[in-house]
What does this fold into?
Amino acid sequence: MSGEIWKPDFPTEIVNEGNVKLIVPKLKSFVKSRSEYAPSKAPVFYNPVMEFNRDLAVLALQAHQRTVNHEIAVCELLAGCGAMGIRFAAEVKGVKKVVMTDINERASKLARQNIELNNLAERVTVEHEEANLLLSRHGAPHERFDVIDIDPFGSPVPYLDSAIRALRNHGLLAVTATDMAPLCGVHSKACVRKYGGKPLRTEYCHELAVRLLAGCLASAAARRDIGIEVVFSHSSDHYVRVYATIKYGAKKADESVKSLGFVMHCFNCLHREASREILAEGCGKCSECGSKMSYAGPLWLGRISDASFCLRMEGEGKQRLLRLGERTERLLVSVEKESGTPVSYYVVDELCHILGLPVPPVRQVAEALKKEGFTAILTHFDSKGIRSDAPAKRMGDILRGIGKEKRQVLNNLGSKHVLHR
Ligand SMILES: C[S@@+](CC[C@H](N)C(=O)[O-])C[C@H]1O[C@@H](n2cnc3c(N)ncnc32)[C@H](O)[C@@H]1O
Ligand SMILES: [Zn+2]
It folds into this structure.
């Protein structure tokens, strides 16, 4: 591209995010009604809501850099106005270079202006090239990246194969998916087509979405004799995000293939179980109530976050003044506590709805579960969700017990009221 200064031919404004300044499209100018989704209407993509995602990405990158303990080369594959890539270079210590690209010429030009605005031209470059082409140019061993971030509008699947090829051993792949309708089972066929696994519309479908994306990643990596380890993942707003490190070697790939399987779910009694295999004719009958089970998968049954990685991220968060610092900390603490817990969670509202019971506060249910000797861990996936080793039937008993106690208290209050009159 020539050295002349390009002037955006659309309304822009300057915003501050993290430690950087960004020229972004003035979103208000591109929507005609309140219901329109402004980021997709602007000539260059910028979504202020994704600041939270970018904050977490910065912390994850720093946690990874501290873990590998050497300078890292980063690829921000789908740049938009460059927000994420520029923040990586400005806010993460140990970043040698950031390479970005965007197929939209105006996006890559605006990203270039943002690089200049933040004085990062020595370490950050942006291309106007199709993402897979850029990754293919980085497939040779000495050209590979230490981190590749894929942050698309929709599904990241079209970029996974070439990203895995362009990532160094022990590298980190960070992947966003915003196509929640397929991943949560609203468009089941699209999910099978894209992610190679069947989704299921259960109350814990957001966790299944993370597991379907991770499973798809594991399969793509295994084809190249590469294994994966999911170090962090979350579901926030309208998207899910998975951070996985890769390890070269057929044995590593075999190990991660062993973590693929199915989640069986009974829509009658809400019993669920994870299984490495399902029968050719389906997944059989529910062991609790005998109803026909449904299934999701193949998907990732392994760990979807690593407690020590979360702690590292938390530590990094504490050292920064993030505008959304409280929210990031809350999420990290929750994900850390959830790591290593069994697949799926109960949603108190959903269970109460099925059982025809009033909905108690989720913390009260958690306490009652613990009193009965079960684990009870709240989940970031759903503010009404509890991860527990209690079978669905016992969950029902506990909820009924709480409902009964509440009725007794109300009755007692009622009779006292009568006596006092
Ligand atoms: C969701 S935006 C990226 C947002 C950005 N990561 C951020 O944090 O602001 C997705 C971008 O991918 C670009 N894009 C879509 N398909 C592409 C492709 N095949 N190659 C390169 N860029 C592509 C779009 O032009 C768009 O700017
Ligand atoms: Zn059942």
Summary: The mean pLDDT is 94. Residues 45-46, 50, 54, 78, 80, 83-84, 101-104, 107, 130-131, 151-153 surround S-adenosylmethionine (ligand 1) (CB under 6 Å). The first strand starts at residue 12 and ends at 17. DSSP finds 15 helices and 15 strands in the chain.
